[in-house]
Amino acid sequence: MSQKDEQKYNPVQLESKWQKVWESKNTFSLNLDNAKNPFYNLMMFPYPSAEGLHAGNMYAFVGADIRARFMRMKGYDVFEPIGLDGFGIHSENYALKIGKHPIEQAEISEKNFYRQLHSIGNSFDWKHTVETYDSNYYKWTQWIFAEMFKKGLAYKKKASVNWCPSCKTVLADEQVISKSKENTETIQISVCERCDTEVIKKDLEQWFFKITDYADRLLNNAPKLNWSEIVKIAQINWIGKSEGAKIEFRIQNSEFRIPVFTTRPDTLFGATFLVLSPEHPIVSEILDWQTNLSIARKNEILKYIDTAKKKSEQERAVVDKEKTGVFIGVYTINPVTKKEIPIWIADYVVMGYGTGVIMAVPAHDLRDYDFAKKYKLEIKEVIKGGNILKEAYVGSGEIVNSGDWDGWKVPQNISKAIKWIQDKELGKKEVNFHLRDWLISRQRYWGPPIPMVFCSTCADQGISWADLQSPNSHREVSKPAEWNSAGWFPVGDEDLPVKLPYIENYKPIGTGGSPLATHPEFYNTKCPNCKNDAVRETDVSDTFLDSAWYFLRYVSTETKDKIFSKERIKKWLPVDIYIGGAEHAVLHLLYSRFVTMFLYDLNLIDFEEPYKRFFAHGLLIKEGAKMSKSKGNVITPDKYIAKFGADTLRCYLMFIGQFSQGGDFYDTGIEGMNRFLKRVWTLFTSNVELVEKESDKEALKMLHKTIKGVTKDIDKFSYNTAIAKLMELYNFTATRERVGIDFAISYLKLLAPFAPHITEDLFQRFTNKNNQSSIINNQFNSIHLSKWPEHNPKFLEEDEVLIVVQVNGKIRETLKVKSEKSKDKGFIEKKAKESKKVQSFLKGKVKRVVYIPGKIFNFVIEES
What we know:
By secondary structure, this protein is α/β, with parallel strands linked by helices. The protein is 34% helix and 21% strand. The N and C termini lie far apart (72 Å).
């Protein structure tokens, strides 16, 4: 194009125009029923919990969108939906902070977030949005809860739970993380993953999902998943399968039986004391049973228990910390030695693992050894190999001092020890998991009300929902969890959703109750069974239930009478690729696998795993530091889009590091990326003359090399190297006076997934011969719906190639020949024999020749 055609690059104006065109022409919207080559490209939807999107959100969304645009140009019908994970503590806390009601703030946040999501230039299908706080959505979240209850997978029990004093609600184990205690490096404490407040323990009645019933399936499927390895390992470790034995210990002269899970039943003869977790329910029973226990002694034990409960599990689990404990005053019998051994309480034993009791074998366990030394308890060696006078021996070896077991080698014979224990009816083989049931209830306002009703009349009569189901009911009710479900009924499908009411005082109470518990107009209702007065559950469900199934709803947002369309699910699911953060490994990603398996068991879907592939992106930081408001280094996309445009920000975010590793954002760097796009604009609008077809051999070679490289890089999420290759091709093109339109269009197509707006504008200029790129007519053909360029191998062939000549495998010469001649074995042999360097080594008889075309020619000769 000539100099007079130059138009200044104005990204803000240009991007706004093309976003409107794409939306008005439904460029990225699909008829989900008619798609012939479906590809479901999904990113984790955001929490609308603050002032708006931050650059970390945009980093993830742009990286996912590049994949969508690439696959669309490769010929797939790409579905890329978006929505808002708007329920939950994040959004409620933000509303509290700014003094807005969550319902009102949700409307404001929705408009702002969707404005921002439009501005980044992603190819979203805006006809299929999902907001978790929309009653048309959470109706089905509640339905899932009710179905869990009907299948015996939802239950309520009193439990020692994680409590966040700041958020004033319970937390699931997965929402508690470890960090170093202030001013220490060795002491770890448990904190809320959301607000960083130290977590305490509280005994509360809570709803749980029996995710542990699915532990084996979740574990067995994990290695087969096409997911980022870091996420698979995190899930496998979190589920934490342990195999061992459950052995029963009896307290003398009582009815007490204490089951103990151990992964080392081979050391049973070395168990010299038992240790109970301070939280173990049998502790209070034993204390009440002891008639000869003084009040002072009992108070001492209770004081120790209270102190222990205030410590985090992480702090209690530190191996090398000083051990503390208290003797409970009674003895049990070691079932194999028949000796009395004392029962202690100690904080290094936690209720969350096994049965909350350990058989202490101090000779062969580090913590038991330290405890026994401190309290002068017996240490008995049962595995030969160490010096127990100095330290515990935890290695393998030969069993000793163990009766019939003497001479057995361990760990080889652990299974033999288990069989012996089973044969003697002292215990049984047992599998244990680190995974705990999902604590699903929350004592907050902003969430889906749990769809359960409690009737005291039915409870007094011992009537539960399960009792009312006929034996031949199609709803095959699985064995209920161990709790008394009498009086509890799920809200009927016809009465869903249980709508969250607008209440003025929605602040968390902090006593363990929900704000809805102070509103009788909400909780007073009638029993679904006997029609007497009853009360609704006033807790709401965990926001992670909202996000455990949203990807299924995207394809059926218009469906009102069922959770989703089975036909659409069959066509589009499982998700082809899911892109998000690895930090969700044991929260959202595990929960969504569980809920998917549950829906599979209901015969609603025909797959167990929700995502064919999960790709974990890296973390975005700012100038060497993690972004945080306290540091004042949070990147707001709006600011950079207003200054440089979305294309510049998109390209820069993808250029600063491997997408899987993350990147470091510098303002000086984004300025450089902006200069690059300005140069691309100037090059194709004024600096280079466009001719009909590219014929220059060097240019075609450079182009096809770039096509091959960029295609490969995008396919493996190596976006930074793809952009580097496009910069290299730009530098080459900028030295030329003219290029073919076919060359220019191929370049724009390669750049299009990264910079969708500028490439659309230039593409329309070239293809419509419209230099002003005016409003597009109804025959608008977007660059993003055009075919992805394919490299032609013939343009990648070198004019000359180097062929190594060997004699008996040793290099003797290197030949430079024309590419077309490199395939002629006879020609290469003739040229090699003409070389004086080779001739001096061909004195013996040539037995055979070996030729790898274009690379190596080897003479095999008989050596004298």
